[in-house]
Amino acid sequence: MTAATPFELSREHEEFRRSVREFAQGEIAPHAAQWDKDHHFPTDVVQKMGALGLFGLTAPEEFGGAGDDGDFTSLCVAIEEVGRVDQSLGITLQAGVGLGINPILTYGTREQQQEWLPALVAGDRLAGFGLTEPGAGSDAGATRTKAELVNDEWVVDGAKQFITNSGSEITSLVTVTARTGTRDDGRPEISAIMVPAGTPGFVAEPAYDKLGWHASDTHPLSFTGCHVPAENLLGERGRGYAQFLATLDDGRVAISALSVGCIQACLDMAVAYAGERETFGAPIGRKQGVAFQIADLEVMVHASRLLTYRAAALKDAGAPASAFKQAAAVAKLYSTESAVTATRIATQVFGGYGFMEEYPVARFYRDAKVLEIGEGTSEVQRMLIARGLGLPVE
């Protein structure tokens, strides 16, 4: 029996990782704590990320993207490295590409792509994806937002919540899911419609006061008699639900990459602190109780990274949707739950100092919890994994 070749990123991916790490350390790390404290969305740095090409890693050259030099794995590398210093900018990148650019790239018409993608790919503008509602989160089929086609215009009425990149000064549009009719089986017909920022009746309500991700842009949205052209339909009418499911599969792997960055940051901080902090005349890293916990972080980051990049490799290789969906759910479940555990361990290693906002570990602790919620909760991932095994779980 021939041994399997260990999975490793390519030399090009590792070189790209180094360039993103250098940028993150120089442009983001020195300011992340202050942005977090001030709840400041750093537009200028987001646009610098665009100039570095981070928003164009999955886009063709004709729209200013990386073309053959980029892929989904590259996007995951970038998200991991940005998230290693600041989870807020990591999610800004993840949502900007996965929820803003990719749906237009995948389902948009030629005209829609030419109109919206160049500025989004350049990082000059951002786009959001409005799925979640006050009464429709994991149960997205319970969407209440409606869109009625009247005289070649969609009239949108409803509300969305927890929408990333939806109300910044550079937000250009939000794609929303809405009921556009009733299917033959009596279930709602759900479609995706692009609503440009500034459209009368579309309001990004005041930003949330969140537990974490303070430097990311997140708003509730309201739509009241909001008129947009009929050609703003994204993809096929009635296929919005299926489109968002496929979008979320990609997003789960990207959130997994963000989680890897979080775990790596916790490991780095814990190792450094355990080597410096002394109790009873010796570094605390000599104590098995501390050293063993840090060893667990090393296991978590390796396992999470392998699961994440295996799923990304399946995406880039064009693997069957069922195989990718299963790999995405496994990666997302394990890495996000590991990230939450990693922040708890790192905070414990720091002791009382870990409870102080002057130490980055406190920020990562606050930022981590939402990783288990966004792009499908841990419960949803377990349901998907079970279904992938053939179990009739509801």
From TrEMBL:
Keyword Oxidoreductase among UniProt keywords: yes
InterPro entries, alphabetized: Acyl-CoA_DH_CS (IPR006089), Acyl-CoA_Oxase/DH_mid-dom (IPR006091), Acyl-CoA_Oxase/DH_mid-dom_sf (IPR046373), AcylCo_DH-like_C (IPR036250), AcylCo_DH/oxidase_C (IPR009075), AcylCoA_DH/ox_N (IPR013786), AcylCoA_DH/ox_N_sf (IPR037069), AcylCoA_DH/oxidase_NM_dom_sf (IPR009100)
Residue ranges annotated for the Acyl-CoA oxidase/dehydrogenase middle domain, each copy included: 129-225
Keyword entries, A-Z: FAD, Flavoprotein, Oxidoreductase
Domain Acyl-CoA dehydrogenase/oxidase C-terminal: 238-389
Gene Ontology molecular functions: acyl-CoA dehydrogenase activity; flavin adenine dinucleotide binding
One Pfam short name: Acyl-CoA_dh_1
Positions of the Acyl-CoA dehydrogenase/oxidase N-terminal domain: 11-124
Domain of life: Bacteria
Cofactor section: FAD
SUPFAM superfamilies xref list: Acyl-CoA dehydrogenase C-terminal domain-like (SSF47203), Acyl-CoA dehydrogenase NM domain-like (SSF56645)
Family: Belongs to the acyl-CoA dehydrogenase family.
Identification of the protein by name: Acyl-CoA dehydrogenase family protein
Species name: Nocardioides acrostichi
Biological classification of the source: Bacteria, Bacillati, Actinomycetota, Actinomycetes, Propionibacteriales
